[in-house]
Amino acid sequence: MHQSSIEKMNAFRDKYLSAKINDPLRILDLGSQDVNGCYRSLFSELVWDYVGIDMAAGNNVDIVLNTPYVWREVASESADVVISGQAFEHIQYFWITMLEVARVLKPGGICCIIAPSSGPEHRYPMDCWRFYPDGMVSLAHFAQMEVIEAVTQWQDLGYDDSDCWHDSMLVCRKPDKGIWWNKKSSLKRWLQHWTTTIGMR
């Protein structure tokens, strides 16, 4: 976890969650294992429930997923916030994972994803993708999420450990447009998910 990623996630917290420090938020961190740092300290308010989830047991991991595509370990509409940093580039079929992000978010819940737009190969255990703003927007739209912002750090900012990654950041929200619209949207996501994970079950 490099310094610029931590600062970007801290900026997300300050901008979108600072007014909710007294709200009992459940915050899921996808790809949470502490590898040279993690986000836990950014979400340590007393009434917040930070839950680290990853594919392997380790430091800062509370829930171990069996697969990144079918999260049987996490209930639908159980999270107020989902965050993820430096994980999506390692997920082969990240668009399926995004459907699970949307599923576990409550209506009106917010998501922040940080992933590199450049940088050298870093297999953990594989390194599949890089992301630009248009790709982040497309990812949100695929899962029927509302885009709040999608940006890339195009310029060097003087980070010795992280300027090479030029991270992109997506902030999006699961819409809450009433019970019938929400059910229709959930059904559409379920169909998308079912058709893309038939061979993974």
Protein described:
The protein is of the alpha/beta class and 201 residues long. It has a single domain (3-200), classed as Rossmann fold (3-Layer(aba) Sandwich), CATH 3.40.50. 26% of the residues lie in helices and 22% in strands. The chain has helices spanning 3-16, 94-104, 133-142, 179-196; strands at 26-30, 49-54, 63-64, 79-85, 105-115, 146-152, 168-173. Strands 3-2-1-4-5-7-6 form a seven-stranded mixed beta sheet, with helices on both faces. Strand 4 (79-85), helix 2 (94-104) and strand 5 (105-115) form a beta-alpha-beta unit. Helix 2 runs antiparallel to helix 4 (179-196). The radius of gyration is 16 Å and the shape is globular. It starts with a helix and ends in a 5-residue tail after the last helix.
CATH architecture annotation name: 3-Layer(aba) Sandwich
Strand order of the largest sheet: 3-2-1-4-5-7-6
CATH superfamily: Vaccinia Virus protein VP39
CATH class: Alpha Beta
Q: What fold name goes in the CATH topology slot?
A: Rossmann fold
Tally of distinct domains:
1
H/E element order: HEEEEHEHEEH
How much is the radius of gyration in Å? 16 Å
Envelope shape: globular
Task: Report the β-strand fraction as a percent range.
Answer: 15-25%
* Helix-and-strand structural type: alpha/beta
Which blocks of ≥5 consecutive residues have pLDDT under 50?
none
Average pLDDT, rounded to a whole number, is: 95
Helical content stands at: 25-40%
Q: Determine the number of helices (DSSP H or I, runs of at least 4 residues).
A: 4
What does the largest sheet look like?
7 strands, mixed
Care to count the β-strands?
7
Tell me the span between the first and last alpha carbons: 31 Å
